[in-house]
Structure formats: C-alpha cells, structure tokens
C-alpha cells in the first residue's frame, strides 16, 4: 500500500522560494509513488488561482511567448496530470475562508474548498505531514 | 495522533486578519477534535502578554472595530484544553516578566525543547 504525505502551505505565489520548494517536494513525492494531500492556507490559496496570466517582459526584451513566464497554477496542473497518469491521488484543499477574504475563488480543476478540519483529517490519515509556514 | 504546533512568526497580518492565523487554525482544529498543543517561541512569546492593545487603527476615517486580541485568543485556546508552552529564554531576552503574562502557561527553557518534541507524534513549525 502506497504511503500518503500531507503538506500544509501558507505562502502566496511569487513571493519567495518556499512555494517552489514545496512544489518540488510534492512533485518528487509523486514521482516516487506517494499519494499527496495539500492544505493551502492563507496566501497559498492563490497558488492554484486560475486567473494567473503570463506577461511580456520589456526589460528582458521578450514577448509573452518568448518570456513564457512560469505560473504556479500551470505547475500544479502539471503535477496533478502527472499524478493522474500514474494512478496517484493528489487531494488539494484550499482553505475556504482564506479564499473568500482574498477573492480567490477561481481555482484550477482538481482543487476543492475545505477548512481546518480537512487538514486535520489529512494529517491523521497520512504517514507524515510537513508544514511549510510563512516566515 | 498528538501534534505540537510551534508559533514563531508573530504579528504577521494580525491587523488584517484580526487574529493570528496559526492560533486561529489551532482553535479550529481543536474544535474538530484534534489532539494538539502550542509552543510560543521567538517574537510570538509576546502573544501571551496581557496588556496588548491593537485598537485605534483608522484609515481615512474608517476605523477598525474588531482589532486583534491575541492574548484573549490564547486564553480561549487554552480553555479548550490546549496546553500553551512559552519559551522562557525568549521572554527574558525581550524583558517580559512572567507577571505580565496570562495565567496557566507552561514556561519551558530552550534546553528542554528537544525532550518536549519527543513527547509528540509530530511537530509542526508554522
């Protein structure tokens, strides 16, 4: 029986390296066959926000296409697709109240709304839990 | 499963949230029957100081009517059966006297934290 890891994320995207580090760990867990739960708390609910958009970068002298700006929502979708292809479960819960206060309701497919009780259930049913809090 | 939640990043967004988000999620999880305790360390030891007053914030005449009352929130969490540890070295470094704190806290020295962590199945450092 495969193991399950739970991650609690708290940082908003585009703010620091913790968000990409978290996604690296999640991606690695999936590559190694682990099921993954994610509880996105506070600013982290914006990680899978569907309206993230690429932009051109005049400083770099590149168009939108050339810049190909990375978007966390696209990374998360890719992680979910990779997991689905391997038959691995990724259960991503956005904290509902955090979503409401930020107007971040439009998340990519595969993200569901929940609350602290979901996080506790995740942790209880997982082999381990890693909290990556805001500093 | 028993979990120790460490709160260290203090006063992060507390005016906007009108609480501390980690104290809040601990309170919510305790309501969901979670078996948890809390350790205040670093700047977060100030959360236990009784005489905090964040009132009076106003922008353009729009006043905040429900400013955070974090010491009260810690008291509420403790009343739910959550043990609140406070690192006494961090208090001393900040010149905070134990008499300034809310009642019923468990003061603990840094040298005993490793043993404390061993009493829990998991430690979550928020």
Helix-strand layout with pairing:
The complex is a heterodimer of chains A (135) and B (126).
Chain A (H helix, E strand, L loop, with lengths): L3 E6 L7 H15 L3 E6 L23 H4 L4 H15 L3 E6 H7 L8 E4 L1 H9 L3 E5 L3
Chain B lengths: L1 E6 L6 H4 L3 H11 L3 E6 L17 E2 L2 E2 L6 H10 L4 E4 H6 L12 E3 L4 H5 L4 E4 L1
Parallel strand pairs in B: 1-2, 1-7, 2-5, 5-6
Antiparallel strand pairs in B: 3-4
Helix pairs in contact in B: 2-3
Name of the CATH architecture of chain A: 3-Layer(aba) Sandwich
The largest sheet of chain A, given as strand count, sense and whether it forms a barrel, is: 5 strands, parallel
Helix content of chain B: 25-40%
In CATH, the topology of chain A is named Hypothetical Protein Ychn, Chain: A
Strand order of the largest sheet of chain A: 4-3-2-1-5
Per CATH, the class of chain B reads Alpha Beta
Number of spatially distinct domains of chain A: 1
Q: From the alpha carbons, calculate the radius of gyration of chain A and give it in angstroms.
A: 15 Å
- Strand % of chain B is 15-25%
Q: What spatial form of chain A do the alpha-carbon principal axes imply?
A: globular
Q: Characterize the quaternary organization of these chains.
A: heterodimer
Low-confidence stretches of chain A: none
Q: Could you tell me the mean pLDDT of chain A?
A: 95
Instruction: Quickly give the structural class of chain A.
Output: alpha/beta
């Amino acid at each position: 029986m495969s193991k399950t890891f739970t991650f609690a994320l708290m940082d908003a995207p585009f703010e620091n390296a913790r968000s990409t580090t978290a996604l690296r760990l999640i991606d690695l867990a999936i590559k190694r066959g682990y099921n993954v739960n994610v509880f996105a708390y506070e600013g982290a609910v914006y990680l899978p926000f569907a309206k993230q958009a690429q932009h051109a970068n005049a400083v770099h002298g590149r168009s939108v296409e050339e810049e190909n700006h990375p978007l966390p929502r696209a990374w998360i979708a890719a992680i979910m697709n990779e997991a689905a292809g391997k038959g691995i479960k990724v259960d991503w819960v956005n904290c509902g109240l955090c979503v409401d206060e930020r107007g971040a309701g439009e998340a990519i497919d595969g993200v569901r709304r929940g609350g602290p009780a979901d996080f506790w259930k995740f942790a209880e049913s997982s082999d381990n839990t890693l909290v990556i809090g805001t500093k | 499963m028993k979990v120790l939640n460490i709160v260290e990043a203090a006063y992060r967004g507390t005016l906007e949230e009108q609480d501390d988000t980690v104290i809040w999620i601990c309170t919510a999880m305790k309501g969901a029957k979670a078996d948890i305790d809390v350790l205040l360390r670093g700047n977060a030891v100030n959360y236990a100081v009784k005489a905090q007053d964040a009132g009076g914030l106003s922008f353009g005449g729009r006043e905040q009517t429900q400013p955070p009352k974090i010491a009260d929130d810690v008291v509420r969490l403790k009343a739910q059966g959550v043990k609140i540890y406070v690192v006494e070295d961090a208090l001393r470094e900040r010149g905070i006297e134990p008499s300034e704190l809310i009642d019923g806290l468990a003061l603990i020295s840094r040298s005993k934290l490793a043993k404390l962590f061993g009493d829990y199945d998991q430690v979550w450092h928020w």
